[in-house]
Amino acid sequence: MAIDPLIQSLKGKLIVSVQAYMGEPLRNPETMAQMARACELGGAAAIRCQGLSDIAAIKGRTEVPVIGLWKEGHEGVYITPTLRHARACVAAGADIVAIDATDRPRPDGKTVADTLEPLKAEGVLTMADCMTIDDIRRAVDAGFDIVSTTLSHGVAAIDCTMADGPDLPLLRQAAEEFPGFPVVCEGRVHTPEEARAAIDAGAWAVVVGTAITHPTSLTSWFKAALEA
Predict the structure, then answer these.
(1) Exposure pattern of 36-65 as b/e (b: 16+ CB <10 Å)?
(2) What share of residues in the chain are helix, strand, coil (percent, to 5)?
(3) Does some domain include residue 79?
(4) 3-state DSSP call for residue 164?
(5) Of the four, 24, 49, 136, 216, which is 20 to 30 A from 143 by CA?
(6) Which residue range is the domain that position 171 belongs to?
(7) Rounded to the nearest 5°, which phi and psi values hold at 183?
(8) Is 208 part of any domain?
(9) What DSSP character marks residue 204?
(10) Taking the complete model, does pTM exceed 0.85, yes or no?
């Protein structure tokens, strides 16, 4: 199994998700680029970000790989839902494109494999955002370069609480079924200890977002602790 050198460079490393939601004060490409650069200085091996403007701004400000995605909508398949979205992420500067790899219906009626095939032919590195072990199996068989537990929590990251932890059972199962394949832990990693536990459970790399780059959630966790 040949693993691309860029993906090999992420083994055992931290990937930081730098995103702001619609209507939030930090939702600005320059702000996201500054946040990404700060994370790079702290040791992030790659940045995951969404939206063409953010991808371009972060790519211009940082030197680490950028995992890009384009969210459109709020329900169903909305993470880079079509081939058009994926190609736009590449044009904006993404080194790896993250795609919803579930078997749910897509806006253009295509399957995950239909979307992936031309990207592979074009030499694009792809990351499969998965919900279940069946999603991961299909993604590996289809030829994704990385698979991730991104969608296993079923809700937006900002809707998770400090008490919610990463999906280590799914991570372990995937790592055991596909030894040596890049299986990334993403979602609900809120502490350094949880990040370490994910690596110990077999994660190729760990994505942390909210706990590093979403001050509104961080503030709410402290507030809740004081008011408990």
Answers:
(1) bbebbeeebbbbbbbbbebbbbbbebbebb
(2) 45, 15, 40
(3) yes
(4) coil
(5) 49
(6) 13-227
(7) -105, 115
(8) yes
(9) S
(10) yes
- Taking the C-alpha atoms of residue 28 and residue 195, their distance in angstroms, rounded to an integer, is 28
- Is there a domain that residue 3 lies in? no
4 falls within a domain: no
How far apart CA 105 and CA 157 sit, in angstroms, is 22
Instruction: For 168-182, write each residue's pLDDT tens digit.
Output: 999 999 999 999 999
**Residue-wise pLDDT tens digits, 19-77:** 998 899 999 999 999 999 999 999 999 999 999 999 999 999 999 999 999 999 888 89
CATH code of the domain containing 44: 3.20.20.70
Query: Can you tell me the distance from the alpha carbon of 39 to that of 112, in angstroms, rounded to the nearest whole number?
Result: 32
pLDDT, mean of residues 94-112: 96
Q: Please, are residues 28 and 18 in contact by the beta-carbon 8 Å criterion?
A: no
Instruction: Please name the amino acid found at residue 203.
Output: A
Tokens found for residue 198: 């994910």
C-alpha closest to that of 4 among 108, 95, 90, 111: 95
The DSSP H or E segment spanning 148 is strand 146-148
- Burial-class residue 199 by CB neighbours within 10 Å (0-12, 13-18, 19+): middle
